[in-house]
Design a protein that fits this description.
The chain has 775 residues and is an alpha+beta fold. The chain contains 15 helices and 29 strands. It folds into four domains: 1-154, no CATH class; 160-250, Roll (Ubiquitin-like (UB roll)); 254-360, membrane protein fhac (Ubiquitin-like (UB roll)), CATH 3.10.20.310; 415-421 and 432-771, Porin (Beta Barrel), CATH 2.40.160. 19% of the residues lie in helices and 37% in strands. Strands 12-13-14-15-16-17-18-19-20-23-24-25-26-27-28-29 form a 16-stranded antiparallel β-sheet. The chain has a five-stranded mixed β-sheet with strand order 8-9-7-11-10. It is globular. This is Surface antigen (D15).
Length: 775
């Protein structure tokens, strides 16, 4: 123990010496008279400010100072050191150039700091926040060729708003402004804040845009501040139109004609093929209801624009309908560029024509994809996909997609006799940009609702065991309330699985396991499914969330009508095949928190339950939950975990990697950090498992019980993420910390971790290679 402490002490001393040397070595590269700028500090001298107000003001002021000093890591400046030690490159390439200008960072010197400019910034910012009598000074502290600038601010008392007046006159625009005053951001007794005043001007502008004032601008509003009308550091605000506001900005405009160019091309316009604006005679032959669709070749049905456009003839202009229309045209998926122009048609009546200039995407596309992959279940393989897309199938912006694919996976070690897997299939989807239903569906969303119809077939061959034919089909709707909320309702979702061939070898194996027999049983699954997704991850907030809830109801009405009850011997069939009856719910909740621009924490919680009843005693294998693998509990190979405390190693023929359950609980946490441009690292921990609803004699310990917490598997690890923009290559190395199928007293594995043991590493260090983040 004494020797270990001695070595540790010498290590700390050596590390401290190295750190000191690196820190000091940067200054030796400075020329005579140069000083390294190490940053600035703002001190606030004011006894009337609260601690929070002082801290907030100090943080904001320091963030506005320029330039920023050289970046540091653990108190050192390694980027500056790389810049200093690298030779000046002769060309803009090579190792020296990369080290000096990519890895390195040019020194920030005291001479680069304009202290008077920063002092003015501090005073101006303080005045903009209501400290009208703010005064600032600065001092420079230098030592050992390093310099820091200390700015001292004496802000005085902060001025508060005593009264807000919205100046009245007889103009139409002023009357509309008066109607907007109840939602004002300017409140009595709030601090004077220039940013709030700017937001108030934009609020008024947005409100007027909703009332037809298309040409209005926030700069047409002026907010006058008068601090002389009241004592005790109070200020009165007067909100009014500027005297030189253009007459056009004060006029309310309405829509005259709505004209659509669905095959717009700038070259055609330059060649004189189309004219903008167009006269009434030229437009008459393109009329459809209240709009004009300029499509001589009839590539698009005019009614799709009647559904997508919110502006109609005679409507008062408003920004909401303007943006909704543009968004809906984009969400049709058939136009590459969407442009909007308003051209005055009647200046006396304040009317303008609105033009929609739409540039179509390639209507048809053919894409061939070749993929190579590996997974944590010791399988490698490749996949070939041929995809054809038609974006205007019936001239109504219907998207038709057809795909043919083939894939194979072969075993690279791991469990014996797992056998190779070959898959081939085809699927087609028709997506119609409206709700096809006997009822009327009105959507005021910026996103076009869609009706989706899908059909698919897959042939699966697990060599030497079995081959399966799987047929799928669905009919349903997808619609968004807004950018955050999405609904996906499949009125009917059908899956039919039929074995084409089952070998004698597999029959012999499955005779020992009812669960394995169910894999090759004929299956008929049909019913509605619904999923709801909420996310605000697209917002620039430090904390965002993602939630997806899914409900799957199979055979419920049919089971009720037929009186099916398999437990009472009343199993019902359709065309000789028993149909599945169950209810399944799954919840996926994720929380993301950004500490800085380069560091974040991502967490996920999954809870799922599938309950068989009526015509089914078990959940179909394809609809059960699985655990383990690159996107789940990464310390366990894919589908090897669970159910419960069952030990999958006891199963013959290597089939332990296909374990499934009716209940799933999983919790993941991952700390992510960016090291350098495309290089990211992560430290993660995963916990979870699956369980069965009912007892299974072939899998003892698989049923969910009050002991479930002791059966939760735990793993942890580190990962590298190579972010190449077009894809993210992920490598995660994980090890199990708690194994649920060990004896209860031995499930935590801390005392058995031995990185020096090659056999331990082989069995317990799991490398996951994947594309994209796990969540």
């Amino acid at each position: 123990m004494k020797n270990k402490l001695s070595i540790y002490f010498r290590y700390l001393c050596a590390s401290g010496f190295a750190a000191t040397s690196l820190s000091c070595s940067n200054t030796k590269f400075l020329k005579e008279g140069q000083m390294l700028y190490t940053g600035a500090e703002v001190k606030i001298e004011n006894d009337t400010l609260s601690k929070k107000e002082r801290k907030d003001l100090q943080t904001a002021l320091e963030a506005n100072l320029t330039p920023k000093p050289n970046s540091t890591f653990l108190g050192l400046r390694p980027k500056l050191y790389f810049y200093n030690i690298a030779k000046e490159p002769k060309k803009e390439k090579g190792f020296n150039y990369w080290l000096k200008y990519k890895m390195g960072e040019k020194p920030v010197l005291l001479s680069d700091v304009d202290r008077e400019f920063n002092k003015d910034i501090i005073q101006n910012y303080s005045e903009n926040k209501g400290y009208f009598n703010a005064r600032a000074t600065y001092d420079t502290v230098s030592k050992n060729k390093k310099a820091q600038v200390i700015y001292t601010l004496r802000p005085g008392s902060r001025y508060l708003i005593s009264n807000v007046k919205f100046q009245k006159d007889s103009s139409l625009v002023n009357k509309e402004i008066q109607n907007l005053t109840d939602k004002t951001f300017l409140k009595n007794n709030d601090p004077f804040d220039l940013d709030v005043i700017k937001n108030e001007r934009e609020r008024i502008d947005n409100g007027l845009k909703e009332r037809g004032f298309y040409y209005f601008h926030p700069d047409n509003i002026i907010v006058q501040a008068d601090s002389t009308v009241s004592k005790n550091h109070k200020v009165e605000l007067n909100v009014k139109l500027k005297d030189d506001t253009p007459d056009l900005s004060t006029q309310q405009f309405s829509i005259d004609k709505v004209i659509v160019f669905p095959t717009y091309n700038i070259q055609d316009v330059r060649n004189g093929k189309y004219k903008i604006p167009m006269d009434a005679d030229s437009l008459s032959k393109y009329a459809y209801k209240d709009i004009y669709v300029i499509d001589p070749q009839h590539k698009f049905k005019p009614k799709i624009f009647d559904r997508a456009l919110y502006f109609k003839k005679g409507d008062l202009y408003n920004r909401t309908n303007h943006n909704l229309t543009l968004n809906r045209l984009i969400s049709l998926g058939v136009f590459k560029f969407v442009k909007n122009e308003f051209i005055t048609s009647d200046s006396l009546q304040h009317k303008f024509d609105t033009y929609y200039l739409l540039t179509p995407r390639e209507i048809q596309s053919l894409r061939l994809e070749a993929l190579g992959r590996t997974n944590s279940a010791n399988y490698a393989g490749s996949e070939l996909n041929l995809n054809w897309t038609h974006r205007n199938f019936f001239r109504g912006a219907e998207q038709f997609k057809a795909a043919v694919y083939g894939a194979f996976d072969f075993q690279m070690g791991g469990p014996e006799n797992a056998k190779n897997l070959f898959r081939a299939g085809t699927n087609v989807q028709l997506s119609i940009p409206r709700i096809v239903a006997p009822f009327r569906f009105n959507s005021s969303s910026a996103f076009v609702p869609r009706t989706n119809i899908t059909l698919g077939y897959e042939f699966q061959n697990r060599t030497e065991y079995y081959t399966l034919n799987t047929f799928t089909g669905s009919f349903g709707y997808v619609w968004k309330e807004n950018a955050r909320k999405e609904h996906d309702l499949k009125i009917l979702d059908v899956t039919y699985v039929s074995p084409a061939k089952v070998t004698e070898l597999y029959k012999e194996i499955s005779a020992k396991s009812e669960a394995m027999q169910r894999v090759v049983d004929k299956q008929l699954i049909f019913g509605p499914t619904y999923s709801y997704t909420y996310t605000n991850t697209m917002l620039s907030k430090p904390t965002t969330i993602y939630y997806k809830g899914t409900l799957d109801l199979a055979g419920n009405i049919t089971g009720l009508v037929t009186g099916a009850n398999v437990r009472d011997g009343k199993e019902k069939t359709i065309f000789g095949v028993p149909f599945s009856q169950y209810a399944k719910i799954e919840n996926d909740f994720r929380l993301y928190h950004k500490f800085t621009e380069k560091t974040s924490l991502a967490t996920r919680f999954i809870a799922g339950l599938a309950y068989p009843y009526g015509n089914s005693e078990h959940i179909p294998f394809s609809k059960q939950f699985f655990s383990g693998g690159s996107n789940s509990v990464r310390a366990f190979r894919a589908r090897t975990l669970g159910p419960g405390s069952f030990d999958p190693r006891t199963i013959e023929a290597g089939y332990y990697f296909d374990q499934s359950g009716d209940i799933k609980l999983e919790l993941n946490a991952e700390y992510r950090a960016n090291l350098y441009k495309f290089l990211n690292v992560a430290v993660f921990a995963d916990a979870g498992n699956v369980w069965l609803i009912n007892e299974d004699a072939d899998r003892p310990g698989a049923k969910f019980s009050k002991e479930f917490l002791s059966e939760v598997a735990v793993g942890a690890g580190v990962g590298l993420r190579l972010d190449f923009s077009i894809l993210i290559l992920r490598l995660d190395l994980a090890m199990p910390l708690r194994v649920p199928y060990y004896e209860k007293k031995d499930r935590w594995t801390f005392d058995r971790i031995n990185f020096g043991d090659s056999n331990w590493r082989k069995d317990n260090l799991i490398l996951n290679i994947a594309i994209g983040y796990p969540f």
